[in-house]
Amino acid sequence: MKQTLFIQFYGQTGSGWFDLCNGFSDTWDLCAGKGDFLWIPLELNPDRWYDETAYQPLPLPIEKGTIYVSASYVNHLYQAYLWALTYPELQVIVGGPVASERHTGKPGWQSVHFKVENPLPKNLILTGQSVERFFGVPEFSGQWRLELPPQIPDEGRIYYSYTLENQCYWKKCPFCSIAQHSADHFRKRTNPDLAFTGLDYHGHKIVRLNTGSMTPEHIRKLLPMLPVTSDMEYRFFMRAAAAETRAMKEAVATMGDNLPDCTLGFGIEFPSDRMWQYLNKGTRMTDVLKTLEFCTETGFKVNANVILGWNNLTEQDIRDLEGFMQRLSGKTVTTLQLRWLFAHPYTLIYDTYDGVENSIRLGPFNCGFHVTVPPDQMELNLAAAQVIKEQCRKKEIQLQGYKNLNKGQPG
Ligand code: SF4
């Protein structure tokens, strides 16, 4: 075993598929020349991410030297912190989506997904940049030679990412940490080569096309290129807005019946024109409905993300929500994912909402908080939850996350 290790976490989700959390996918080849890879299984249930008792300083095969840790989720970062404490002679260098993205402000830069509240161990380094930049080579210049953990069964299902860019072109939503990514570290794949298709795995593959939100350019260029095979499906986020719908219609028109199996995630947030304006979503009810309906006609599945926990709802918003849900035809939305508003550090919501006293911490890392809202607003939010629950039942939309709504409530 070399004295340099590249550590990549993975885990099996509640749905049975394996999330490869593969921060090293593009750079596996680059790193393989510098050390050994080690896959480590770690808790994937987000309900346990913030529970410090769920973690131990898992034993490592080396005690001196350097480990590079790819942190896709904040619990990966916490695991790296525990290793730095346990192995003081080991240099622990953390990159990956959680530690590589910067928020720039005063003083200097911070990692965008958390605040560091206490001094870190001296042997723990957060890169604040991509692996390529860290090693001084051009972005996306490596071969895609990801090797899978041997524990994954041949006939299983895996989920992995193919990064298009590390930001969101829209960048305007006040609750979103992706909107805070520093432009200094913009990383964009200018020539998508579909390298993910070369993965040596015969089971089912779920490929996440990774960007904050697909641009109309991505949609026109990439959608017709996606290989259509029975063992491959795609997931990506897109704005439900007029420009994206136009681009999708143009792309689909060139594809005939050769359509890939796609699930599109939409940040619906709260379906009322007034709320979309407040949230800078740049869309409106008619355009959102057109986007979702076109997905249904095409055969794409829709995952609608709705947020509750707003402190400014009106009775009219609830009526608009009800109207939106009623106008959805039975099959327009496959899954509706409900969550309580989370205040990510550095966002406007973090600076302006109540709840900071309930901050969620993992060791020295402050990860943000679930907002709290005054009683009259709580009533409106819960009324909205009831409308959603009832309409999902009527339209046979799979509702997820309903039980998590109590996270923002006092007590
Ligand atoms: S469109 Fe999505 S990814 Fe982009 S800023 Fe808004 S919430 Fe964030």
From TrEMBL:
<dbReference type="InterPro" id="IPR006638">
    <property type="entry name" value="Elp3/MiaA/NifB-like_rSAM"/>
</dbReference>
<dbReference type="InterPro" id="IPR058240">
    <property type="entry name" value="rSAM_sf"/>
</dbReference>
<dbReference type="GO" id="GO:0051536">
    <property type="term" value="F:iron-sulfur cluster binding"/>
</dbReference>
<dbReference type="GO" id="GO:0003824">
    <property type="term" value="F:catalytic activity"/>
</dbReference>
<protein>
    <recommendedName>
        <fullName>Elp3/MiaA/NifB-like radical SAM core domain-containing protein</fullName>
    </recommendedName>
</protein>
<feature type="domain" description="Elp3/MiaA/NifB-like radical SAM core">
    <location>
        <begin position="158"/>
        <end position="364"/>
    </location>
</feature>
